[in-house]
Amino acid sequence: MIGRLLVFVCALTLASAFAKAQPPADYYKGRALDLIVGFPPGGGYDLFARPVSRHLGRHIAPGASVVIRYMPGAGSMLASNHVFTVAPKDGSVLAIVSPTMPLDARLNPAAARFEASKFNWIGRISPGHNVAFVWHTAPVRTVADAMTTEVTFAGTGVGSNIVIYPTVTNNVLGTKFKMILGYKGSADAMLAMERGEVQGHSTSYEIVKTAHGSWIETGKVRFLLQYGATRHPAMPEVPTVIELARNDDERSILSAVMTAVEIGRAVLAPPGIPVDRLDTLRRAFDRMMTDPEFAGDLKQVSMEILPATGEALGRVVEGIDRMPPDLIAKVKAVYGN
């Protein structure tokens, strides 16, 4: 009996060693990879998850494919924890989570069962372009109006940047965005705004333009504020949140929160995957960024390609991990979690 057990254990060990020794081209040939998305379908994250799932596989290996698995919950903290602790570390799993996740882990370490800098960052399609906007009948026309007049905003859960950004704006700059939580995602939130349940919402500019481009063309919505360091070319007259900082302290807090914009629309993988497979995934992602078919799909959802490599993203996240405790304490005080 013991002899059989030893033979079985040896066979498993050899099989595992063989799998790890496989050249990446052989390992990925014909393989279906999981792409875990930390949000429900139909929202802003789905806009770029679907093109990634359609195109990335053929840049990895012949016959490789990518299948989306939705895992919403706690502003993608559920998916982040799963990918770090449970998902296979063999290069067969990718993930899309909130770009606020690295900072979230610093602010709420009890909820995060991961170290963001230990994820394997695969690459970024483009920076984030979130905006705060209101329906045309709302009693505010500019962000200055929102400093004195309350306006109701549809939100999801406290861990989503849909809620985080307006909350930080309230706490740092004094806007009066009243968050109404419980909507499943931006699609439901914008429907609620159209129905008159709320007066505004905050989400990516691309999802507004893709889902409701006629609102922009006909003036049904007014953009009040952009969340980022620079103004989007389509909204040159709309200020960024960092521009509105009144002193160095506010500027440092808002800049720390806006590191999520630099991470943007990114793909990551679990820690501990073989180095050669990681390189295969990163270079496949880089090739996808220059793929005309992929670019065509993104154009259909009004999304531009301003890529960053996985290596560059890793350095950004390491910078978040190095933020001094006093700055983290200030950010936590305004974050609203």
- Mean pLDDT, to the nearest integer, reads 91
CATH class of the largest domain: Alpha Beta
Largest sheet: 5 strands, mixed
Radius of gyration: 21 Å
Rounded to the nearest angstrom, the distance between the terminal CA atoms is: 56 Å
Give keywords.
2 domains, 337 residues, 11 strands, alpha/beta, D-Maltodextrin-Binding Protein, domain 2, single chain, 46% helix, three-stranded parallel sheet
Summarize the SSE layout with pairings.
Blueprint: H1 2-21, H2 24-28, E1 32-37, H3 44-60, E2 65-70, H4 77-85, E3 93-96, H5 101-107, E4 120-124, E5 130-135, E6 151-154, H6 161-173, E7 177-180, H7 186-195, E8 200-204, H8 205-218, E9 221-227, H9 248-257, H10 259-263, E10 266-269, H11 275-288, H12 292-300, E11 308-309, H13 310-321, H14 325-335
Parallel strand pairs: 1-2, 1-3, 6-7, 6-8
Antiparallel strand pairs: 4-10, 4-11, 5-8, 5-9
Helix pairs in contact: 3-11, 3-12, 6-9, 9-14
